[in-house]
Amino acid sequence: KLGGPPPPPTEELDELLADDWFFGGYSFDGEPRRLSRNFPNDLEFEVPTEPRSGNILRDAGDYRLLLHREPWGAVLVIGYSKSSFAEGVWGRQFGVVVSSIAVLAVATALGWFLIGCSLRPIQAIRDAAAKVGAGELGSRISEDSQRDDEIGELSENLNQMFSRFEAMFERQKRFTSEASHELRTPISVIL
Fold first, then answer.
1. Could you tell me the pTM of the whole model?
2. Would you say 176 and 146 are in contact if contact means Cβ atoms under 8 Å apart?
3. Which of 60, 169, 179, 190 could pair with 45 as two cysteines, CB 3.0-4.6 Å apart?
4. Rounded Cα–Cα distance for residues 166 and 125 (Å)
5. DSSP-assigned letter for residue 143
6. Cβ distance 57 to 65 under 8 Å?
7. 2 three-state secondary structure
8. Residue 27 and residue 74 in contact, taking contact as beta carbons nearer than 8 Å
9. Is the peptide bond before 51 cis (omega within 30 degrees of 0)?
10. Distance from the first to the final alpha carbon of the chain
11. Which of 76, 78, 47 is CA-nearest to residue 63?
């Protein structure tokens, strides 16, 4: 079993690892040579005799370890606490979920606003057509709905058509009025 009191920490190596990770270097006889500042004092583990060199993954209680064994017997241990790693993962997952919900809410609001802005001229066209259909022949699509695109061209064409309808109905009304006057006069002479 390897373990024991740690020697003084090595600051240069401590700076290379994240806070959740630790490392330790052991001599061939199992004595700690270099340990990171956050190396756990309660960590005990066994280094298998086979293979004589290479990497070995091990669980040691709450810790996950990578043991690198040199051919002459020295062992480098790199590890992390599974519980602190899980807490970090859950914290990041929570952050991703909250961020995703916020982005989705902003995208939905922005989409709602942009769709509303793009459909406003269509609503003005629909309202004007409904008024003309109800008999208000003087109704037109408002000028603020006019744009320099297909919707603007449609609005302009509909306004011209509404003007022609109004002029046609005025001519028809005038013709009917004149025709009824002309027909009344001969009938009154006969009677």
1. 0.42
2. no
3. 60
4. 17
5. G
6. yes
7. strand
8. yes
9. yes
10. 135
11. 78
* Amino acid at the residue 29: D
pLDDT digits 0-9 by tens, 130-178: 888 888 888 888 766 557 788 888 888 888 888 888 899 889 888 888 8
Q: How big is the CA angle at 42 (ends 41 and 47), to the nearest 5 degrees?
A: 100
Residue 181, number of CB atoms within 10 A of its CB: 9
Residue with tokens 């061209």: 153
> Cα dist. 11→14, 37, 164, 180 in Å?
5, 8, 89, 110
**Got the DSSP string for 101-140?**
HHHHHHHHHHHHHHHHHHHHHHHHHHHHHHHHHTT-TT--
| Closest to 34 measured CA to CA, from 4, 66, 9, 12 | 9
